[in-house]
TrEMBL record:
Residues 444-458 have a biased composition (Gly residues). Residues 1-42, 426-512 are annotated as: Disordered. Residues 463-474 have a biased composition (Pro residues). Keywords: ATP-binding, Kinase, Nucleotide-binding, Transferase. The lineage of its organism: Eukaryota, Metazoa, Chordata, Craniata, Vertebrata. SMART domains: DAGKc. This is Sphingosine kinase 2 isoform X3. The keyword Signal does not apply.
Length: 651
């Protein structure tokens, strides 16, 4: 588990909805409670089970796990499944029986995703019967006490020392906008979303709307027209490319400075899934791929919690600017990324095949890399006014007038808090006068497939309790404004053209001021380091992972304020380069002692390719080839990560 610095800002849980995106990032939840010992008992009780009513269990809840001990019919010396780490719990709800003979009993169910012996996670539900009192009201209050305590622990909310544990302790469920690229990875994103993501976040009591993207830059267009105050977070269900669109859609808004603070999350259904790999590591899970990585990240999302996200402002040769949350690549890495696009049907295996092909035709590129080391204080720019971001900005031709809006039928498809199994996506709202309310999934609102989870032969199925009244501090969900077709109003009012499809680096005059960077083509200030020569690759990366299973910068953090520069000089053999990438799976490539491998931590950098042809990528998206420069802006964004270092199994 990484050590938390005093100056680092970490939000632990979903909280009440503030008025602005900036406030939402800072006050998404109350501060974390003082740490308790992992084995400190918080609740203890004896309950029955369902559907096997003859069994009795003793339950003990600690800050990190639920301990389950069978009492009847025969106590187990070594109970199976007797320890349920909270890191494997997605949610909890209360239920009641439909049988008249069982009218006095109440039930609570815990949704878990334990790891099997082979490492994969499988969903399991444990249901317990509360029957210690004579009346249903008393038993229900006890079931709600346990369910509330569990949910508070999951979301990092403090439990009252001597006070009563009631559902009013929980804030209103957060509202998430899920953006799904159905073609992500091997085209399984929508199926994985229906099968794994939506059931889990419903069990966690999160409220959501879902939109399927239909074309490139669709997500970028959508976020430009959203009322961001209505959402507690935007979560992409795809690879890294969809999040790149969302962040740069924020940059296109007039209120970009507040919009970019909107919490964003990622649920990996793409090919690379680099950011998800870093989130998985931050959460304390073992490295994972495919569905296992998706389940791990979904569990972390259900727990709530965010931290600041460093973003790079990248300026290209034409003056275009874009935000990067992941990497800038040149040489071998970008070649493999782009040339393997034709193997997208293979999923993550496309990179393995692309690496083999790249090694067979290994190229070197001549260039110049300059960077401002992280330990050097920058020289303040002498002009009092802001410097232009690129020399070519002075001679840019006027932007063409916006084209008439093109009708898409429909603009998007959305699913909103629907019971599972989900029907086919329905058309989007088109009438501004007909907003749709967003239901709240309350604590005891019941999860999907109730009868399938707990119903047995001859047993009357359980049903969700009636919804609890909203606490005074948690008003009912307001009506959401629909997302309409056409060019977003914010762009029309600003007079700027919409971004060109297929061009990630669309021209933008907005964004953070790069005070460390002089204009491209002008001399660099003192304190910069310049390397010139033949390179096999150059990588500027912000988080730790280059892929779900590639740890390029092992010590990087989401908010360390650094851009981690890695490069490989010419003259390296194919075998040595292959060993570097194999060692990168464990993050041990720097310990190989390869003389061609270099590293530097920087705050800003400039890359000037001297080879006339090549490939440059930003966050895996190909951009124009030529000189570029970038500056790291610490904590500019907000990333939904879940709590750091999920607790391991208790001894």
């Amino acid at each position: 588990m990484e050590t938390q610095r005093p100056d680092q800002e970490l939000t632990w849980s979903w909280g009440h909805r503030p008025r602005s995106a900036l406030d939402r990032a800072k006050a998404m939840a109350p501060p974390p409670p003082p740490p308790l010992a992992a084995s400190t008992p918080l609740l203890h009780g004896e309950f029955g089970s369902f559907p096997a009513r003859s069994s009795r269990f003793a339950l003990t809840l600690t800050p990190q796990a639920l301990h389950i001990q069978r009492l009847r019919p025969k106590p187990e010396a070594r109970p199976r499944g007797g320890l349920v780490p909270l890191a494997e719990v997605s949610g909890c709800c209360t239920l009641r029986s439909r049988s008249p003979s069982d009218a006095a009993a109440a039930y609570f169910c815990i949704y878990t995703y334990p790891q099997g012996r082979r490492g994969g996670r499988r969903r399991a539900a444990r249901t317990f019967r509360v029957d210690g009192a004579a009346t249903y009201a008393e038993n229900r209050a006890e079931a709600q006490r346990w369910a509330t305590a569990l949910m508070c622990l999951l979301r990092g909310l403090p439990l009252p020392g001597d006070g009563e544990i009631t559902p009013e302790l929980l804030p209103k469920p957060p509202r998430l906008l899920l953006l799904v690229n159905p073609l992500g990875g091997r085209g399984l994103a929508w199926q994985w979303c229906k099968t794994h993501v939506l059931p889990m976040i419903s069990e966690a009591g999160l409220s959501f709307n879902l939109i399927q993207t239909e074309r490139q830059n669709h997500a970028r267009e959508l976020v430009q027209g959203l009322r961001l105050s209505e959402w507690d977070g935007i979560v992409t269900v795809s690879g890294d490319g969809l999040l790149f669109e969302v962040l740069n859609g924020f940059l296109d808004r007039p209120d970009w400075e507040e919009a970019v603070k909107t919490p964003v999350g990622i649920l990996p259904c793409g090919s690379g899934n680099a950011l998800a790999g870093a989130v998985n590591q931050h959460g304390g899970f073992e490295p994972a791929l495919g569905v296992d990585l998706l389940l791990n990240c979904s569990l972390l999302l259900c727990r709530g919690g965010s931290r600041p996200l460093d973003l790079m402002s990248v300026t290209l040769a034409s003056g275009s600017r874009c935000l990067s949350f992941l990497s800038v690549a040149w040489g071998f890495v970008s070649d493999v990324d782009i040339q393997s696009e034709r193997f997208r049907a293979l999923g993550s295996a496309r990179f393995t095949l692309g690496t083999v092909l790249g090694l067979a035709t290994l190229h070197t590129y001549r260039g110049r890399l300059s960077y401002l080391p992280a330990t050097v204080e920058p020289t303040s720019p002498t002009p009092a006014r802001g410097l232009p971001r690129a020399k070519s900005e002075l001679t840019l031709a006027p932007a063409p007038a916006p084209a008439p809006p093109v009708a898409h039928s429909p603009l998007h498809r959305s699913v909103s808090d629907l019971p599972l199994p989900l029907p086919l996506p329905r058309p989007a709202l088109t009438s501004p006068g007909s907003p749709e309310p967003l239901p709240i999934l309350s604590l005891n609102g019941g999860g999907p497939e109730l009868a399938g989870d707990w119903g047995g032969a001859g047993d009357a199925p359980l049903s969700p309790d009636p919804p609890l009244p909203s606490p005074p501090s948690s008003p009912k969900a307001a009506l959401l404004s629909p997302i309409t077709e056409g060019v977003p109003e914010t762009l029309a009012s600003s007079g700027l053209p919409p971004p060109t499809p297929g061009s990630p680096g669309a021209v933008s005059t907005r964004g953070p001021h790069d005070h460390l960077l002089p204009p491209l083509g002008t001399p660099l200030p003192p304190g910069w380091v310049t390397l010139e020569g033949d390179f096999v690759l150059m990588l500027a990366i912000s988080p730790s992972h280059l892929g779900a299973d590639l740890v390029a910068a092992p010590h990087a953090r989401f908010d360390d304020g650094l851009v981690h520069l890695c490069w490989v000089r010419g003259g390296i053999s194919r075998a040595t380069l292959l060993r570097l990438f194999l060692a990168m799976e464990r993050g041990s490539h720097f310990s190989l002692g390869c003389p061609q491998l270099g590293y530097a931590a920087a705050r800003a950098f400039r890359l000037e390719p001297l080879t006339p042809r090549g490939v440059l990528t930003v966050d895996g998206e190909q951009v124009e080839y030529g000189p570029l420069q970038a500056q790291m802006h610490p904590g500019l964004g907000t990333l939904l990560t879940g709590p750091p270092g999920c607790p391991r199994r208790e001894p």
